Amino acid sequence: MRFMKPFAGKNLLSIGLYPKIVLVFMAAIVPILLVGSLLVVNGEKTLRREIENSLSSRVHFYTAELSTALEHIVDLKREYIFDEDIQRFTTMSPVMTDYERSVEVRAIQKKMQTLKSSSAYIEDAALFLTSEQKIIRPNRIAYTITSEDAAIHELMNRKAAPILLWHGKLVQAERFPTGTYEDELPAYWLVITLNERKIKSILSRMLTENGGNAILSGLESDWLLSGDDSNDRFQRLMTEMPQSHPAASGRNVTTVDKRDYIAAYERSAELGFALTLYMPEELVLKPLSGYQWWFRILIATAVVIVLLFAYWIYLFLQRPLQRLVRAFRKVSDGSFDVQLKSRSRDEIDYFYEQFNRMVETIQSLIRDVYEQGLRSQRAELKHLQAQINPHFLYNAYYRLHRMAQDEDTDSVKRYTRLLGDYLKYITRNGREEATLKMEADHARTYADILKMRFRDKLNIDWEELPKNEENRLVPKLIVQPIVENAFVHGLEELDGRGVLRFSVARDAGSGTLSLIVEDNGNLLSDDKLAELAERLQSSAEDIETTGVLNVHRRLALKFGPEFGLCISRSELGGMRVEIRLPAEERG
Predict the structure, then answer these.
(1) Which CATH superfamily is domain 426-582 in?
(2) Higher pLDDT residue, 325 or 270?
């Protein structure tokens, strides 16, 4: 309702610039774009549908042709593997004379010749006779079956597909007796080598467009043949479509190397192969170029109209909006002494008034938030300073009592000096910041106190600060609470020797200086570590504030949300806390 008050009693359509611009622009542009879009979209859909139907029909036809030829070879293979003459020879061979065996081998060789000539898709056939140690082919006979020849049974045990890739050739194989053979060989087996040139000639006949290809591939992606010499990686990417779709046949638009292809496929589960035919989409849509030219003409006409309206908009609306944009940019840069005034009483004047009110509100909120942040930071620092662990004091004084009882004067002197330095630093409330060296020295003092308590059960590896980083100012008490957390939750209850490591790392790429505290404690589970890391990322104000969380919030408030603490698993086995500071000192 407040928005309507400046225009009360006026006709918005008679004075408003925005409704006039929108109505005229829509009336001029939308019909033109709509007609052009319908022409192009409908033409593309129709042509794409026809091409996809044509691809599917060709794939189905050639799949049927190849299936018929390969099924015929499967039938021949079964016919010859159960041939009575071959079975009788393998059984009676030991009692035959050399002459009789020679006659039978010649007869079997003629059968292999007949088998080879029975189909144009058969390049070669070989019968392996185990008892005779012979390999009978149509044009030659070998008298030794090598272990490499017998290794085909391992492949046949692993793969049940009718077509196998063996020594770079596509083969169909069968053995007698049928079954699985591990350490022994069957009586004989038959290997039929397929004629890849014949299959490739069938695939090449399917190609009608430059850039397209037809691919015959195994369903287990172990072999493929194509109608042209496309690169192997590209072909294997195209064969992924029939493997990733559950349907026995289909078509789709596939993107390979940032180029779209219209592809159709059909697979034969019985024969273990898939036939894929594809062509570049730009070739398919080439007939649409005429439609596209007309659409470009329509777009050009629309652009001219838009330019005319743009000039009108510039005169009546663009100049005030430019002033408003420049004012917003000044505000985003942190300048709030911006006030806008309009000469007219319209929507622009209302925008200017609301902008001026917004700037005043932002200034007030910034002051409130900044003061609240300072108060919160001071309160959290004082709270942290007041959190002197009673358990730590009890152990410290008890250890001091033991050293005095043992009359270890040197240790008493050093221990009381360390304890005095520690209490002096933690109770000093004059400043909220300290140099990085003072912070590191205070944390080292705390570690040395506990080192004297645990003696040989604790090993401290402390890296010195770089000289150029010692005098930079940081919030007070950001290192010692992390060291204390490592002792309390990682090292105090450790059975073996504890290790505390302090190191410094600088990353110029991310612009950070990291102080890293690690321990080898084994009490912190992965779930507890993940929970603590999640609490650091939480912005909720009602969660319990611990020393670690206190340090993280003060660093984020001081330097920004990208700085603070980062918790992970240390290579020592315990917790790794990284104190992330800006690489360059900030005020």
Answers:
(1) Histidine kinase-like ATPase, C-terminal domain (3.30.565.10)
(2) 270
